[in-house]
Specification:
473 residues; mainly alpha
Length: 473
Amino acid sequence: MTPAEALPLSDEADLGTATASSYGLKRGILSPVETLAQSISTIAPTTSPTMTIPLVFALAGNATWLAYLLATAGVLLVALCVSRFARYSASPGSLYIYASTLRPVVGSITAWALLLAYIATAASVAGGFINYANVLLNLGFGLRAPQSLLAVIAVTVATAIAYRDVKVSARTMLWIEAVSITFISIVVAILLAKNGLHLHPAQLRLDGASSSGVRLGVVLALFSFVGFESATTLGAEAREPLRTIPRAVIQSAMLTGVFLILCAYTEVLGFAGAHQNFGSSDAPMHLLAQQAGVPLLGPLIDAGALVSMFACILACITAGARVLMLMGHNGLASRRLTQTHLRNATPGPAVVSVGVLTLLPAALLAARGASGSDIYGWLGSLATYGFITVYGLVALALAFYMRRQGHLTPAVILLSVTTTVAMVLALVGTLIPVPAAPYSWLPYVYLVYILAGLGWYFRLQSKRRRPAPQHQA
C-alpha cells in the first residue's frame, strides 16, 4: 500500500502526496470556468428561488433576506477556510483529505459525512425534479407522471453523463445554470423596477419575524449553498488546480450569496403585492413572472428549474463518485471503486454506486406516496447535517495544519475559531427547538450512520495492528 493509499489510516495526512496523484483521472482538462461550473451546479442557484426560499419564508417571514445574508456570511467563512487548504492540495478527496490533517479518525468521519451529503443532496433534488416535472406536465397537458418513474429517469440519465465524460458534464451544467439564472434575473430586475427605488418597509422592519424563526431560517438557507466547495473534488482534473480551485470556491459562494439575497427580497416583495401565500406556492417564479408582466417567462423559468435540478443531481454524482473513489484508495471502501474507465477516464464503478445510492431513497419515498416537495425537504435536511459536520471539521483542522506548515497567524486562528463556532451554532439550530416528525428523526438517522462509519474505521485499524500469521517451514 502506497502512502497515498494509507492516508486516512496513517498518523498524519500528506496533502502533497494526495495532490501528486491523478488516480487514473484525466489531468488538467477542465478550464477555470468549467471548474467553477462544478460548484455552481452543485449549489443549483436556480433551485433555491423555486424551492428553498419559500420554505425559508415559512420560518423567517419578512426576515427571509436577513436569513440569507447571515447564511452567506457563514458560507463565506467556510469558503475562506477551504480556499486556504486548496492552495496546498488538489485531490479528488477534497474536504475529507483536508480534515484528515487533524487526525485520521476525523478524516474518516468527514469522508462518510461528505459522501452522505452529496448523495442525500442529489436524492433531495431528485424530489424537486419530480415536483417541477409534474408542474410542467400539468401546465402543458393536464397530466401527472408516476413519481418513481421521474426519479429513475433523472438519476439514470445524470449517472450516464457522469460516467461518460467529466468535461461534457461540466459544460452541460454551465449552460443549464446560465440560461436559468438569466430568466430569473430578468423577472427580479423587472419587479424591482416596477416597485421603484425604495425599500420594502415590512422587510426592513422585519415585521412578524421571530428570533427562533430567523435562526431556523438561516439553517435552512444554508442548504441553498451546500456543495459550493465541490470544485475541490476536481483537483486532478482542473487546470492549474492550486490557483483555479480556491478562486472557484470563493467566487461560487459570493456570486450565489448576492443572487439569493436579491431573490429572497424580491420574491417576498412580489408575493406581498399579489396577496398570496408565498410559503405554500409550488411554482413561485411562475406567479412572479405574471406580476412582472412577462408571463411567457413563467413556464421558461419552471423548465429552467427542472433542468437546473437535473444539473445538481449530475454535479452531486460527479463529486460524490470522486470522494468514494478516493475512499477506496484509502481503504475506507472497496478497492473495486478505485477503478477508472479506460477510455473515459472517469471513476466508473464509483459513479454507478453513487447513482444507485441516490436513486434508492428518492424512488422508494416517491413510491410510498411522498410528494416531491417532501422528498426535497427531508433528504435536504439530512444532507445539511453532513455538510455542517464537514465544514466545521475542516475549519477546525485549518489552524492545526497551518501551524505545522509554519504559516499560523492571528488571522488564521480567528478565521478557524469563528467558522467552527458558526458551524456548531448552525448544528444546534437544526436541533433546538425540536422540529416536527419526520424531521425530528433525522438527527438519529445521521448519528447511526456516522457511528457505523466509525465502527468500520476502527475495524480497519484493528486489522492493521493485528500481527501477521507466522508460517512454519
